[in-house]
Amino acid sequence: MFSKILIANRGEIALRVMRACREMGIRSVAVYSQVDRDSLHVRFADEAICIGAAPSSNSYLNIPAIISAAEITDVEAIHPGYGFLAENSHFAEICESCNITFIGPTPENIKLMGDKMAARTVMQKAGLPIVPGSTAIIKNKEEAIKTARKIGYPVIIKAAAGGGGKGMRICHNDIRLAASLKTAQAEAEANFGNPNVYIEKYLEKPRHIEIQILADKHGHTVYLGERDCTIQRRHQKLLEESPSPAIDNKLRRRLGELAVRGAKLVNYISAGTIEFLLDRHNNFYFMEMNTRIQVEHPVTELVTGIDLIKAQILVAANKKLDFQQDNIQIKGSAVECRINAEDFENNFMPSPGKIETLIMPGGPGVRLDTHIYPGYEVSPYYDSLLAKVITHGRNRQEAIRIMQRALSEFHIAPIKTTVPFHLRLLENPLFLKGDISTHFVQEMLKEEQKGEE
Amino acid sequence: MNLKEIREMINLMNENSLVELEIEKDGMRIRLKKTGQGTETFNGPVVIEREKIPQQTIQESKEFSDRAQAKTVEIKAPMVGTFYRAPSPEAPPYVEVGQIIETGQVICIIEAMKLMNEIKSEIKGKILEILVDNAEPVEFGQSIFLVEPL
Question: Which of A34, A72, A350 sits opposite B41 (nearest CB)?
Fold first, then answer.
């Protein structure tokens, strides 16, 4: 087992990994930028190294600085968290060449799944249905229109090297498609350094269902149920739950087995998530695979009782996963709300600043993953996630009831947060019925605006 | 300053892709700063701070800071790595205490990922103290030399 691990991240996920390390008797090293000097992850770590100035490119994305910090603290492994360098195959390769274990999949896994088109091709080979789409990069308007007509409108233009909901364009007709192609390519270039785009059929009102998988280095791969992440705004997830109200045991087994088959075909190692879109007729389609631990992993941990971060560390240390697929059960229901430093009544405008008042929720069934504390300064340099509140109940209704209770206890001031938005969401009758699609938030906000006028 | 002048300042900033602009006029100082520059989600509003500064105080504070600056300056590590005083184990150290250094002169090595990075001084001065031992690790921003500026 490792004796020391460096966590190449910040905020709540850095804390999460450090907690697992602490429980496993592993020393943790934090890296931080100058503005994160007073951060909780720096305080909790056994050692902390300042690696650069505030901007991510100088610090959390600065590979030489991170590797250098790893060398001077003599760590055996690096956990990349999520975001930042978690899906950077180049970073994973450098770790390997410096004899530092990268806690995650192999560089090849990352590279393959990072190429969204190649991922579709390989998953199709594994027998997963894929969203109908172009089989090659779209080079010009004529190709775009030809492909779109074949698939059938509406279509969505996506970046081949993309992901995370960035740089996508929905088009309902030839004119819109022709007009959007160039801008989509420019955005892809700006966001991912690669202008290549492809086209997929755009499924109307789908649900976003993802399967958590875990694989060790000894060929053992399992699935840990699904998460329903349909509640999104601008392709960013806001609320996640497990199990999904739209999935029955039969569908769960089918999705899980296909996910495992796909992961095995590419010799996937560590934790990963296979994302599907589910349409109104229960047809499902592979969308993409995320080769990292995800923000919403606690939801799966609560319903399965399995600690995913510890599992990642064990896998990286060459240990065998000690549970069989038959032992993995989904018990009860879990819901997670992502609380961001945003002003929901003002178009979710970012609301950085100092937290003066902080009262955190607690009690049975409540888990809080957060790095905030009274007096903490939320800086504008990084993402706006303040805290994840996760609740677990015997069924969905109870998990939601506990979440409503917990969020009503959660006081953060004077900065604005999305707690009031989630409270609104949790009372919405369509949400309570479980009758939602990825447009839900958009429609809910529109209704609210209409109501006010 | 009136709203029109402030608007002109904002336009000036946008036209020249400036992030911060400070103008002093008639004893009044206005600083305009665009918050949030990273590729992350924050694209904050422009912040306007106004301070009325009597001329006398400006003169005094400048003199005071000049005197304070004359005492010592800390040279900080611009990267994280291992600090070396010489280019190799057998070679003599780049600088010693009491030595006068020039702007641009190499004062030490910080090794990161097997690369030896020559660190150059940004000021001219006299080395008063070397704050880190040879082959010790240094963090970004850690003070490595105490220098009296000349």
Answer: A350
pLDDT grade for B36, boundaries at 50, 70 and 90? very low
Q: Does the active-site annotation cover A252?
A: no
Contact A350/B142, CB-based, under 8 Å? Answer: no
CATH 3.30.9.10 fits B73-149, yes or no: no
Which residue ranges in chain A fall short of pLDDT 50?
none
Phi-psi region of B26 (alpha: psi -120 to 50; beta: other; left: phi over 0): left
Task: Decide: B94 and B107 in contact? Cβ < 8 Å.
Answer: yes
Determine the pLDDT at residue B40. Answer: 36
C-alpha distance from A49 to closest chain B C-alpha (Å): 6
CB A323 within 8 A of CB A348: no
- Cβ <8 Å between A350 and B43: yes
**pTM of the predicted model as reported, rounded to 2 decimal places:** 0.83
Determine the distance in angstroms separating the CA of B20 from the nearest CA of chain A, rounded to an integer: 16
Say whether pLDDT at B10 is over 60.
Answer: yes
Q: CATH 2.40.50.100 residue ranges in chain B?
A: 73-149
Across the interface, whether the CB atoms of B80 and A51 are under 8 A apart is answered yes
Residue of A nearest to B34 (CA): A380
Question: Are the beta carbons of A293 and A82 closer than 8 angstroms?
Answer: yes
Contacts of B122 (CB under 8 A, 6+ apart): B75, B103
For residue A266, which of A453, A145, A124, A382 has the smallest C-alpha distance?
A124
CB-CB neighbors (< 8 A) of B79 in chain A: 52, 64-65, 68
- In chain B, which residues have their Cβ closer than 8 Å to the Cβ of A380? 35-36, 38, 42, 44
Q: Which domains does chain A have, with CATH numbers?
A: 4-103 (3.40.50.20), 132-201 (3.30.1490.20), 207-452 (3.30.470.20)
Q: Residue A72 is nearest to which of B35, B81, B115, comparing CB atoms?
A: B81
pLDDT at position B100 over 90: yes
State pLDDT tens for residues A58-106: 999 999 999 999 999 999 999 999 999 999 999 999 999 999 999 999 9
Burial level of B65, CB count in 10 A (0-12/13-18/19+)? Answer: exposed
Catalytic residue among A227, A233, A292, A367: A292
Q: Per-residue pLDDT tens for A115-173? A: 999 999 999 999 999 999 988 899 999 999 999 999 999 999 999 888 767 778 999 99
- Considering CB atoms only, which of A56, A72, A384 is closest to B137? A72
| Contact criterion met (CB < 8 Å) for A34 and B141 | yes
| Percentage of chain A exceeding pLDDT 90 | 87
- Specify the pLDDT at position B62: 52
Q: Give the C-alpha distances (Å, rounded to integers) separating A320 from A220, A423, B67.
A: 8, 42, 66
